[in-house]
Q: What sequence folds into this?
């Protein structure tokens, strides 16, 4: 047990030990019936006399916090009056002042109130359309297990270190990623690829590098709430650029670039989260041109770009970018599984070295074992066939949702997504999706209210439905429940 002791201080050592243990017991860290270390062992490890520890234990016993059994040791006593020990410290407001002050600027993730409401809902079996993931069931855990084993057999202790921290990650994986991107028309040299712990970390390192105090980030309005939470946490000001069916509006963007001088533009041009919209090719060209004209970097989040179920592909912004203004970000979370925590960014020029330093500052390296395993897993042609399988499954699920939505009351409209994970639905005028949320929970269905995705948290009649997690018959049942909830609300 590590007890901090201040040996030059006025408080006797036995009292310091007693105080520390009493606090741990009151905070609930040391729980009832836990055995305290034998006085001789604790004295040795702390470098104090045994008498010092015996005195500390005796004081704790006198206060009823511990009890001793001759020959067995000293144990934490059960709390008095059934009160949990952990509560007493909190209820007497004994957090240090700096901790109390944190509450004033506390971050509350945008989705949190809704997640808590789902956790506390009365309905026993809520169909959740709230997920930001694909299904993990298509991924073959068994094949992955065998790949881990083969990598360990091949690389042994070599796979147990930090791996490459100087160039951006496991070199063969960076080459594989460059090949995959090349096959999709996105130019990337292995040296421009930086492996990150999920694409969330890629967004974080870019923002950390480019953001200065007082800076503004331009985002689509609406946009991915995880990016809003992240940017807010870093102290950025956020300005949302409205979208239409072609994506971010270039007239509004140009005005913002002219008047605000933002530090970066964050965009999800393909199968946008949350609307599912893909930016038209002419808008993509305009965006890249404007960014160059105004000397502003673009962060292109292509989190679901490969998950297309119909229609033609559009070029990635990175593919249109001749001047190295685009930092491209992608992830294996949506096509494979998020638990790998492997994403990456592609950037060229002096920015790469700086991003690499920020990445190292954050977590030294993304798991080297996971990078090696992923590389062994996706180079054997599995990636493309897995992608086809995922595409077939998600297309069916999307269609199931589109079919089920036909029963919605008049006035409910939605955008048909050509790919990705989400469907964006609008309620009849005047209905607030956040107000519908508890009504829907009572019916046994959950969604993400649109307000969560707006930088200004405005009330909204829109909501996001995930269609990739559940099988078609569950989707049909969930949409039926949603339809009932809308009817209940309209009737109110
Ligand atoms: C648009 C978008 N970008 C990035 C992420 C982060 O995903 P990950 O860190 O798992 O790659 C998500 C997750 O939901 C997302 O929706």
A:
């Amino acid at each position: 047990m590590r007890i901090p002791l201040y040996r030059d201080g006025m408080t006797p050592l036995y009292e310091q030990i007693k105080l520390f243990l009493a606090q741990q017991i009151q905070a609930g860290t040391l729980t009832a019936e836990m055995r305290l270390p034998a006085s001789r062992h604790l004295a040795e490890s702390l470098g104090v006399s045994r008498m010092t520890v015996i005195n500390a234990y005796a004081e704790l016993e006198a206060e009823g916090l511990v009890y001793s059994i001759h020959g067995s040791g000293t144990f934490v006593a059960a709390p008095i009056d059934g009160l949990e020990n952990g509560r007493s410290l909190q209820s007497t407001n004994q957090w240090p002042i700096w901790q109390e002050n944190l509450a004033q600027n506390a971050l509350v993730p945008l989705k949190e109130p809704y997640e808590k409401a789902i956790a506390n809902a009365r309905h026993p079996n809520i169909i959740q359309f709230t997920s930001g993931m694909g299904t993990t069931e298509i991924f073959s855990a068994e094949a992955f297990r065998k790949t881990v084993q083969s990598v360990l057999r091949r690389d042994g202790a070599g796979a147990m270190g930090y791996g490459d921290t100087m160039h951006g990650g496991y070199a063969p994986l960076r080459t594989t990623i460059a090949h995959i991107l090349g096959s999709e028309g996105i130019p990337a040299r292995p040296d421009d690829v930086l492996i990150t712990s999920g694409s969330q970390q890629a967004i974080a390192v870019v923002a950390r590098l480019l953001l200065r105090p007082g800076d503004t980030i331009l985002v689509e309005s609406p946009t991915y709430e995880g990016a809003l939470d992240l940017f807010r946490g870093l102290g950025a000001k956020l300005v949302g650029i409205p979208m239409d069916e072609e994506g971010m509006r270039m007239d509004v963007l140009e005005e913002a670039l002219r008047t605000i001088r933002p530090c970066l533009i964050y965009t999800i041009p393909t199968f946008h989260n949350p609307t599912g919209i893909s930016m038209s090719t002419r808008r993509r060209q305009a965006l890249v041109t404007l960014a160059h004209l105004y000397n502003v970097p673009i962060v292109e989040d292509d989190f679901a770009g490969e998950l297309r179920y119909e229609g033609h592909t559009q070029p990635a912004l990175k593919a249109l970018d001749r001047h190295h203004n685009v930092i491209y970000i992608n992830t294996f979370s949506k096509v494979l599984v998020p638990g790998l925590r492997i994403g990456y960014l592609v950037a060229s020029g002096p920015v790469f070295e700086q991003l690499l330093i920020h990445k190292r500052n954050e977590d030294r390296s993304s798991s080297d074992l996971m990078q090696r395993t992923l590389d062994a897993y996706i180079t054997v042609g599995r990636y493309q066939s897995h992608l086809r399988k995922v595409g077939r499954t998600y297309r069916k699920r999307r269609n199931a949702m589109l079919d089920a939505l036909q029963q919605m009351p008049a006035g409910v409209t939605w955008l048909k997504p050509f790919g990705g994970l989400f469907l964006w639905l609008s309620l009849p005028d005047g209905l607030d999706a956040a107000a519908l949320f508890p009504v829907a929970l009572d019916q046994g269905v959950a969604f993400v209210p649109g307000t969560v995705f707006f930088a200004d948290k405005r009330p909204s009649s829109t909501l996001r439905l995930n269609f990739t997690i559940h099988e078609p018959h569950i989707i049909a049942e969930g949409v039926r429940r949603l339809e009932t909830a809308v009817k209940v609300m309209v009737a109110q």
Q: What stands out?
A: The first strand starts at residue 66 and ends at 69. Residues 132, 198-200, 224, 226, 268, 273, 301, 303, 331, 333, 338, 343 surround pyridoxal-5'-phosphate (CB under 6 Å). The longest helix spans residues 382-405.
